[in-house]
Structure formats: C-alpha cells, structure tokens
Design goal:
Blueprint: H1 3-6, H2 10-14, H3 20-32, H4 34-53, H5 62-78, H6 87-130, E1 136-137, H7 141-147, E2 168-176, E3 179-188, E4 191-199, E5 209-212, E6 215-222, E7 225-231, H8 235-246
Antiparallel strand pairs: 1-2, 2-3, 3-4, 4-7, 5-6, 6-7
C-alpha cells in the first residue's frame, strides 16, 4: 500500500473498523513508513485527549429494564410466521408488541421512580454523615422551622421529640429527585436520623420501607407532606420514631 492509500484509512484503523486482511497490510506499511506511523500516533494523541476531556455518566438502573423489555418485544414482533394461515394473527401480535414497546418506558419508569427517589434520599443521608450534616444547629423547633423561610418554597413541619428520646439536632437544605427538600436531623444515642420532608402534591412517594448498605428508610404521608426517615438505627426503634412523627 502507498502512503496515499494508507492515510485515509488511519482513522478507521484506530477505531478498529477495517477488515482483518486490510489491517494486516496497513500494519505492514506502518512498520516501514515513519511518516504514516507518525500520523497514526498524532491521531492517537488527539483521541486520548478528547477521551480525557469527556465526562462519563452512569446509566440509571432502570435503563437496563427498559432495554430488556424492548428487546423481548422486538423478538416477539420479528418472529417469522410458521404458516401462512397465521399471518393475520402475526400482524395483530406485531401491533400489540409495538404498542408495548411504546408504553414500556413509561411503565418501567413509573415502577422504578419511587425506588430511585429512595436511593437518592439514602445517598443524601450518607453524604451528610461524612460532610455537611446540619446547617442550623438547634434543638428548638421554633428556631429550626423559621430558618427554612426563604430557603425552600414550602414550610416544613418541625417537631422536637427530646422527651421521647429522639432529640432534634437541627436541620439543613438538601436535594433529591432534582428538588430541594428539608432535612430534619435527630439523634438516638450515637445514631443519626435524617427526616426528609417535601410537598406531596404531584410527587411519586418512595416505597414505605427501603433498605441498603445497613441503612433503613421508612416513608409516609401526612398533612400533604411526604416524609422519609433514614438511619442505621435498628428497625424497631426507627419504627417507633416514625410512629411518633406520624401522630404529631
């Protein structure tokens, strides 16, 4: 191969997009041609620079379920008919499968959305344990509640449960599900409890109970607010704590 033939193929060679035989011929040329080998190294340098500058994002967990649902539907739709007499039924099946493909993302998304909210709240709790846990430090509910004024588009209910063994430590503004939420911080001996509060209207509630990495979440709705308590406290005590808040 000549240099004029090799140079247009360098990009494809770098991306492994040429046939094996052609690649062998091109590699042989590169071993003996300093100019073309230098051009290939320049392309590699540019490629690596671009990759380092690009941000990497992890696909959401529910995407795998959506893809699997779509593939199962596609296999069913594309399955060839065994006999000409079944062709009308095959057309009906294809139409049903196509509708399923269109609706699958919405069904899967609705089913997993509440779990995603639960995971985000748990992650917010974990971040607070190793970083900023409290913005306003106070055991007085009449100090913590007005502190949220102007920082949130709602006024969260705040209750001190010191008499019941769960003293209020303070509060902070946190974020979950692309929304600001109030985080009320309580304690029980050496355990910290975060209670996330946000308006219930139009929101998908988390599961009533959710657990991961040794942490437990309990969620409920009261007075048009969603509440989620998160802690590594044992299940019985966390349940007792949430019942106290539910009855306020």
């Amino acid at each position: 191969m000549t240099c004029d033939e090799v140079r247009p193929l360098l990009d494809a060679h770098l991306d492994v997009e040429i046939e094996p035989k052609q690649r062998e011929t091109l590699d042989s040329h590169l071993k003996t041609c300093f100019s073309c080998a230098r051009d290939l190294e320049t392309l590699k340098t540019v490629q690596n620079s671009v990759r380092r500058a690009m941000h990497s994002y992890q696909a959401p967990p529910h995407l795998r379920d959506q893809v699997r649902s779509a593939l199962r539907g596609a296999v069913y739709v594309d399955r060839p008919a065994r006999h000409a007499a079944w062709q009308p039924w095959g057309a009906i099946a294809a139409a049903v499968g196509f509708c399923g493909l269109l609706s699958a993302p919405f069904i899967v998304n609705s089913r997993n959305q509440s779990r995603l909210v639960a995971e985000e709240l748990l992650s917010a709790h974990e971040r607070a344990l190793v970083g900023r846990s409290v913005d306003v430090v106070s055991s007085d509910q009449h100090t913590v509640k007005p502190w949220f004024n102007g920082k949130l588009p709602f006024s969260p209910p705040v209750t001190d449960l010191r008499a019941e063994g769960f003293p209020l430590e303070g509060g902070r503004v946190d974020y979950a599900g692309e929304r600001p939420v109030a985080a009320l911080v309580y304690s029980r001996r050496l355990h910290r409890i975060d209670v996330f509060v946000w308006p219930a209207e139009g929101e998908k509630p988390p599961p009533e109970r959710f657990a991961r990495n040794g942490y437990t979440e309990i969620s409920w709705t009261r007075d048009n607010f969603l509440f989620t308590a998160v802690s590594d406290l044992n299940g019985a005590e966390l349940t007792a704590f949430t019942r106290l808040l539910m009855n306020q």
